[in-house]
Amino acid sequence: MKLSQTLGASFVALTFAASAFAADQSILVQSTTSTANSGLYDYLLPIFQDKTGIQVNVVAVGTGQAIKNAENCDGDVLLVHAKASEEKFVAAGFGTERTDLMYNDFVVVGPAADPAGVHGMTDVSGALTKISETGALFASRGDDSGTHKKEKALWTAAGIDTAAASGQWYRETGSGMGATLNAGIGMGAYVLTDRATWISFDNKQDYAIQVEGDDALFNQYGVIPVNPAKCPAVNVEGAKTFSDWLVSAEGQDAIAAYTINDQQLFFPNAPKN
Fold first, then answer.
1. Distance between CA atoms of 191 and 193, rounded to whole angstroms?
2. Cβ(258)–Cβ(264) under 8 Å?
3. Residue 273 has what pLDDT?
4. CA dihedral (31, 34, 35, 37) positive or negative
5. Which of 146, 198, 232, 241 fits 63 for a cystine, CB–CB 3.0-4.6 Å?
6. 63 and 80 Cβ atoms separated by less than 8 Å
7. Is 45 in contact with 91 (CB distance < 8 Å)?
8. Which ranges in 16-123 belong to alpha helices (H)?
């Protein structure tokens, strides 16, 4: 599955079950967009369904919105990539337990012309400094997603106030990853994206990865069952079955086996595995 002209935060319902299954044999996962846009769920969920008979519906939005949805009891499981926010979610009683699930990394992509001269850099703070100093355009999601949270942290670590540059060289799209990549490519701007989305993105034109390899670009995903003490209607057994399967040896092997063009998109790292 390839991501092409995705616009805005995507609301995706990925359903894998026969209609005969009852409501209590289904769960709703509030998810970050990258796991859906990369095609990971298309690959994983049929395997899980065949094993358990449980239907999995996925709402794919930015991490911030996914967390809000889960806090509003609209979901049984949360699967996102902003660890600090996930830990707050659990500490506030909305989740029963957070478990590391898998990881990949973020990259900075940009046009072949590379106006800031950052190609090949492995120091993301240095690269962002060059982008700001040259006034080269940078397109931000600006949507409180996990990627946006990471991007803001990277600017802060580099000592750069992007708020002062908003609307100038720093452009906020308020959109999802696909729409931001399309917008960035349209204006010749650098963009921070997770690698899985970039691999599956189908409108690269002359764009390429310009900055990668810094430990600060590490991208951890976590899975959290929603707490029935806060949300009594949650499907406790279904949520636990799905979460347990994802972090089991079988689930972790399935995550590792998912590739596009012979490139592995996610790397399992659940603690017990």
1. 6
2. yes
3. 52
4. positive
5. 146
6. yes
7. no
8. 33-37, 40-52, 63-71, 83-91
Please give the distance of CA 160 from its chain centroid, rounded to a whole number: 24
CB neighbours of 20 closer than 8 A, spacing ≥ 6? none
Instruction: Quick: pLDDT tens for 199-226.
Output: 999 999 999 999 999 999 999 999 999 9
CA–CA distance from 156 to each of 15, 143, 161, 224 (Å)?
40, 17, 7, 28
CA 260 to CA 11: how far, in whole Å?
Answer: 23
**pLDDT band, very low/low/confident/very high, at 19 (cuts 50, 70, 90):** very low
CA–CA distance, 84 with 65 (Å, rounded to integer): 15
CA-based torsion, 148, 88, 81, 63: positive or negative: negative
What is the bridge-based pairing of β-strands 138-140 and 190-194? Answer: parallel
47 neighbors 215 (Cβ within 8 angstroms): no
Q: Per residue in 196-223, is it b (16+ CB within 10 Å) or e — as a string? A: bbbbbbeeeeebebbbbebeebebbbbb
Better-scored residue on pLDDT, 53 or 20: 53
Per-residue model confidence as pLDDT tens digits over 65-85: 999 999 999 999 999 999 999
pLDDT digits (tens, 9 = 90+) for 131-153: 999 999 999 999 999 999 999 99
CA 16, CA 54: separation in Å to the nearest integer?
8
Distance CA 21, CA 90 (A): 30
For β-strands 138-140 and 170-172, DSSP reports them as parallel
The answer to whether 140 touches 128, Cβ cutoff 8 Å, is no
